[in-house]
Design brief:
The structure is a homodimer. The first copy, chain A, is α/β, with parallel strands linked by helices. Chain A folds into three domains: about 45 residues, lambda repressor-like DNA-binding domains (434 Repressor (Amino-terminal Domain)); about 130 residues, Response regulator (Rossmann fold, 3-Layer(aba) Sandwich), CATH 3.40.50.2300; about 130 residues, 3-Layer(aba) Sandwich (Rossmann fold). The first copy, chain A, is built from 13 helices and twelve strands. In chain A, the strands form two sheets. The first copy, chain A, has a six-stranded parallel sheet with strand order 2-1-3-4-5-11, sandwiched between helices. Chain A has a six-stranded mixed sheet with strand order 7-6-8-9-10-12, sandwiched between helices. The C terminus of chain A is likely disordered. Chain A binds a DNA duplex (16 and 16 nucleotides) through helix 2 and helix 4.
DNA sequence: TTGTAAGCGTTATCAC
DNA sequence: GTGATAACGCTTACAA
């Protein structure tokens, strides 16, 4: 794999420049010469060195993609969407899992810059990711925010309207008779969490239901977080009649805890969440959700990024708000009375 | 972002070499000089250029990772495992989704080589991926196969024993009374598919149950494939009493089709599969599966790869066989008679 | 302890 | 149409 342009050149009996011309297909090469060079390339298994190319052209043909976790059922499609779009544009993707850890995320960013990525797609860990991005952004480096926005940070982004989505979900619960509705939210330094909480408040307010701190549980947005929050919730008396969780994995964890206490969803308690749970939805279509087109976050994000890279994006930052659809299933059946103390 | 070593050098009033020494921390620099250089680095926001470094050192500090699809619930954790291990080793990962397409895969490989990755982790699309890898492997380029092995291709790999796993699954079905067992398999040019079919045959043979082509359905290993295969299966008379699918998504699709025909799992028909369905297992723990430690495929694979890259792996190729565990749940309740024609 | 010179594999520029 | 030369940003080898 150490074959260079020069090796090809000497085998073909031409200069390096001629080989370069053939490789880059610009034309201006005698057909006969071209053939000789192509033969040599094939014979030697020559593969151009992008490192060298990048060094001189300032184009690494790579972008960075930072997400909290590829395994997350929301981010996995985001990653695929971004990668597919990048491939079509001739770019490779350096994938990073920040684990929602600011320090790790910062290290990734620095290293990606060292690798001279031409742009960065990032679902920032928290609002404080801002400081890691500020210098980059000021220097005009192409950045696109995915899913989460950052306060006081003007930048291209692809998001959904979490306030509206959450409101739809909670309004639906209210419409079918729920009034004591709990919410599982995440630490308040993530925009989507804040917005979904805000949507929850708005829906309550519109229905003149008082907002109660007691019904809002702050937790990690994974299964274990949902599980624990539900355990705490189960100590309430009276129990809420429904729960709205900030995302799908939290809902799955909540469901698990409820089951263990003998509470059936939706018979004994309603459960709705942001984000669908793909396979689950097929097999047990009982959870009412707001579904986001996850893959589109990735593909549109990449598209915005490539426009920036090509300098075809203009001065102003663009913000794409994707539609999130309410999918009503069965997990929040209408209810009128106050639920029994099903478990203790 | 166009700050170079020289810029730092001139600002600090030293030579480029001195800056290089400071950056690489080799020592042998006067503390006072060191401080001046560090100040300059900070002041200028200098980030070393890995492209340039890689060009001279022949170390890009990147590896390639090719999987059919990151969204696949098996490969997503594989990717995370690999990326985490790579990060700890100071490497970045170029992620590629081959979409199980040989041509795409081949293009990826070539481009990754152009990017001078130091090694390749790959879950090959099919047996025919071999030709795309042969030249590389012969030249001693570090490659580790994940999940799938390739015939006549001697190479480090991390796999599970699919024959044994499948056999366990089918033996379990037989033990609880099933004798007419269908199998959904994939095209026979994927090692795991072949092996699982072989495990199915072995289990039947051990129980003196004749193997019947009629009960083996070849399909794509996604939800839609499972769905379609199940639809064909439902035309059989008598119906099989149980189905063993080659992976989890196929099982989910099958389940969907069965449901639509009014067949309940496991009441009316048994269903088992290779690979667990994470969230589903929590909420509807009815499917008996063979569970693979997916993330470990990635992390161990990366480990093998880095040993190769560091040339600490020796001549012979290593093959790690991970244990896949049978998890018995309820999806294959014991049965004795012949099932009714539940749907038509 | 620090600096100089050469070169990694390519491409831009300008001759021929 | 083709080739020499310099340069991209860094490190290795050697010199001071």
């Amino acid at each position: 794999m150490a074959v260079t342009l020069r090796d090809v050149a000497s085998r073909a009996g031409v200069s390096a420049m001629t080989v370069s011309r053939v490789v880059n297909g610009g034309g201006g090469v005698d057909p006969e010469t071209q053939r000789k060079v192509e033969d040599a390339i094939l014979a030697l298994d020559y593969v151009p060195n992008r490192l060298a190319r990048g060094l001189i052209s300032h184009k690494s043909k790579t972008i960075g993609l930072i997400v909290p976790d590829v395994v997350n059922p929301f981010f996995a499609p985001v990653v695929r969407g971004a990668e597919t779009t990048a491939r079509k544009a001739g770019y490779r993707v350096l994938l990073c899992n920040s684990e929602a850890d600011l320090r790790l995320e910062r290290e990734y960013i620095e290293d990606l810059i060292a690798h001279r990525i031409e742009g960065l797609l990032i679902a920032p860990a928290t609002d404080r990711s801002r400081v890691s991005l500020l210098a980059l952004q000021k220097s005009g480096f192409p950045i696109v925010l995915l899913d989460r926005s950052l306060p006081d940070f003007d930048c291209d982004s692809v998001v959904s309207d979490s306030v509206a989505g959450a409101r739809k979900l909670v309004e639906h619960l209210i419409k079918i008779g729920h009034r004591r509705i709990a919410h599982f939210t995440e630490s308040d330094d993530v925009s989507t969490g804040r917005d979904r909480l805000e949507g929850y408040r708005q829906a309550l307010e519109a229905a003149r239901i008082p907002y109660s701190e007691e019904l809002v549980f702050r937790t990690t947005v994974d299964r274990i977080g949902g599980y624990r929050a539900a355990q705490h919730l189960l100590a309430l008396d009276p129990l809420p009649t429904a729960i709205f969780t900030v995302n799908n994995m939290t809902a799955v964890g909540a469901m698990q805890a409820l089951r263990e206490r003998g509470l059936a969803v939706p018979k004994d308690i309603g459960l709705v969440c942001y984000d669908d749970v793909e396979h689950l939805a097929v097999l047990s279509p009982f959870m009412t959700v707001v579904d986001q087109p996850a893959e589109t976050f990735g593909s549109l994000g990449a598209q915005l990024l490539f426009e920036r890279i090509a300098d075809k994006a203009g001065e102003r930052s663009r913000r794409i708000v994707l539609q999130a659809d309410l999918i009503v299933r069965e997990s929040c059946c209408a209810r009128t009375g106050i639920p029994g103390r099903a478990a203790h």
